[in-house]
Every structure is written in C-alpha cells, then in structure tokens.
Amino acid sequence: MLTRIEVDGFKNLLGLAIDFGPFTCIAGENGTGKSNVFDAIQFLSLLVDRSLIEAAQEVRGIHGERLGDPRDLFWNGHSWSEPRMRFAAEMIVPGEVEDDFGRAAKATITFLRYELVIGYAAPSGLEKVGRLVLLEENLRHIKLGDAPAHLRFPHSTGKFRNAVLHGKRSGTAFISTIVEDGQPIVSIHQDGGSRGQPKRAAASRAPATVVSTVTSNDDPTILAARREMQSWRRLALEPSALRTADRYVDDRMMDVNGRHLAAALFRVANRAGSDPEAAYARVAGRLADLAGINVRDLRIDQDDVRELLTIQLVESSGLTLPARSLSEGTLRFLALCVLLEDPSVTGLICMEEPENGIHPANMDAMVHLVRDLAVDPQATPGEDNPFRQVVINTHSPAIVQLVDPGDLLFADTAVRKGPDGSTAHVLRLRPMADTWRARGHSAVTRADILPYLTTHPGAQLSLGDTA
C-alpha cells in the first residue's frame, strides 16, 4: 500500500507530496497534470523491473506519447542544465513474499520509506541521446511507534494497523547512499542490521536501481519492497481487449488493458473453495446495478472444439449476448466487477476517468464499485477484504459530487519558481476542508468548487485561481 508519495522535478510536479488512503479521487480540469501523478507512480513501479532507460521509455512523454527521450521526464528537461528527479514513497509492504526462485522471504519490518534521485548525463562519443544516472537510492524503515503520524486516514488500530504493520529494525537503512570522491556509492545492508559488511557499488554507471537487482531471499525486506512496487498497476481498459475471447492456454490473470477478462472470470469462479454458480451470480448481480442492463445470468462458454473461453450475458428476456456485443461502458464495469471478486489482486490500482463510456444514470454505481475495490481500513485485510488500494482521476463534476469529501483531492495549477529559477505552472492538489487530508495543507471549501460542480458537461473546468 502506497501511503505517501513525494515528487520533485518530474514533468510539472515540483515539491508535490500526497498522502494516500485506501481510496483517492483526484479531480480537476484537463491539462493540469493529473495524469503525471500516475506517470510518477508507474515510473517507480517500472524501475523495479527494468533499466533506467527502459523504464523512461515506457512512460508517456511530454506530448502524451512514449518518445524514448529521457529528458521528457524532467521538469523543463530540454533546457535545464542539471536535471534532477527526486522521489520518495512511503509504503506498507507484504510481510511474506517469494523470491524469483520460489523461496519464502520474510520482511524484517513492513513499513518502509524509499527515496530515489535520478539525474541526466549528456550524450558523449557516438551517443545521440543522453542517459539517466542514479544519484541516490535509500530504503529505510519507519518506526511502528510513528505509524499514527504517517497513516493519517481513518482506520482501525487493532483490526487494520496492527494487522499490516509488524516487525522491527534496530540497525541502519536497508539501502543507503554516501558520496566518496564526488561519486555516489550505494550500499545494501543486511537485514540483521549492523552484522556483516554492506555490499557497495558505484551508482554513477549503474544501469538500474538497486531494488531491481534484488531477486533472492538474501535481502528479504528489499525484496518485499520490490514486490510491493511491482503490484502498482495502471488500468487502461480497452474495448477491443475486453471483447476478445481467451484460448484455453492463455494467461488467466486479466491484463491492465482488460485482455484475458474471460479467463480471469473463469479462474475466479472456479478457484478452490468457491461455488462457481454463486461467483457468477455475484458478478451478474453487481452488473445489474447498471440502469438499462437486464441481467438474468452470466456465464463462461467453454468451446472445447476451438478451445476458447467466452463471456456470455443472458438478459431477463432470455437473449444471450457475447462479450463482443456489449457496450464499452458495460465491459469496463464488468472488468471491475471481476477484479472485485478476485482476492489475489492486491496492491495499488490507478485508473483514469472511470466514467468513460458510462451513462450519467450509472455514475453512482461506478463510484460505489471503484470505492468497494479498495480495502476497508476498519476491518482486517484478508480473503474477504483484499489489501487493495485504488486511485482514480476524473474531470467529471458528477463523480466529484458522489465521492466522499475525505477521498477527494482537487487539481489545478499554481505558479512557482522552478529549480533553474524561472517560474512555471505546476500541479497543485488540495483536499477538502475539514477532512483528514486537510491537516497541515491548504484546503478548498464547497464554495470554492461550486463553479466546478455546476459547470455543464463538456465545458472547460476550473477549480479556482492559480495563485
């Protein structure tokens, strides 16, 4: 669970700090940089599996495309003489994980803070494009006694916090960085603390982060941090992927674009200890929350001749509709219903504009569904309460009116001085007044956002001034 992120120097994010709860809705006009928050989270997740340059190439460039130029990730990157991106992520990591060889690993402590600084080296020799440089990487524990100050969202101490936070750490950081002769040196420290010599490596020529290199249970807490960041996913459900039938040999985990939806539903319904008919009925019942959808039954057609799995919806009239005949909004809603039924899907889910393709009459059903995907912090995480976190962004006033005020962050731009001394429009996120997020932050009131709430659909939205 990502409880806090700090970003400085990434795209238009300067000095940005966000405290997350189980569910967060970022709302505001298009063009403010809301999606850059998702880009920053995605970048950190990619960095635990890929090299620095490969991760950069997977993230949207300044024009919304994957351009492959690492300078596009830096604030004003093409003109800044010494680009720097700084990230910090506070997270609750799994207590037990498996390494890449299937061996169990138990984290020393499950509340961690990860810090990363990345620079840019200009091209030299035959290089035409420069490269990203690792300047600093740290992984430290957060004392469990300090947890109430860090986990600011409402939650049960006994059922939630004590269930997910455990362990202790008496030694130094798990990963630390020092500078020797002007060069950063990154060290991995053993989980036992001061025992044993740290493993040191020069950072300046490192092609990847240290976390990405930890694959065995020799460093279980770093591995747990890696597994947590690997679980951060960005859903981008595509109608063509959602409508595609699955072969018997296909993966049975739904992809971030919605591919393998049929196989995922088949797996969830037939998992050990589950009643398939009851599982299909629960998904059908949730789908029936949509106005205009008359669902009598939902099933998976198993074509043994072509070896295909296909979702079929049976209407109250008896008409059977395959997935390819369903609307985009219905398919997106169905995909989220399947995720809701799947306890194996944990971690952070980022989703942009969940209202896309949804009829205005069904906004309430969609908001309740995405909210229900997130863990209930008043109960113990488990099979019936998966440890799942959801962050959405939207420009829909209807969504804003339906979301709990404590879950909202309002996005606009503010003029601030950039790292090179020039002024720039940067993303600003402000919570609603009198909510848990408002403590120590500039907040907005309902009067401040009244123009936003009353703007007709399709108009350019505004959340206030940019001072």
Automatic annotation (TrEMBL):
Keyword Nucleotide-binding: no
GO biological process: DNA synthesis involved in DNA repair; double-strand break repair; SOS response
Keywords: DNA damage, SOS response
Keyword Cell inner membrane appears in the UniProt entry: no
UniProt-listed Pfam families: AAA_21, AAA_23
Record-annotated ATPase AAA-type core domain positions: 255-400
Name of protein: Putative ATPase
High-level lineage: Bacteria, Bacillati, Actinomycetota, Actinomycetes, Pseudonocardiales
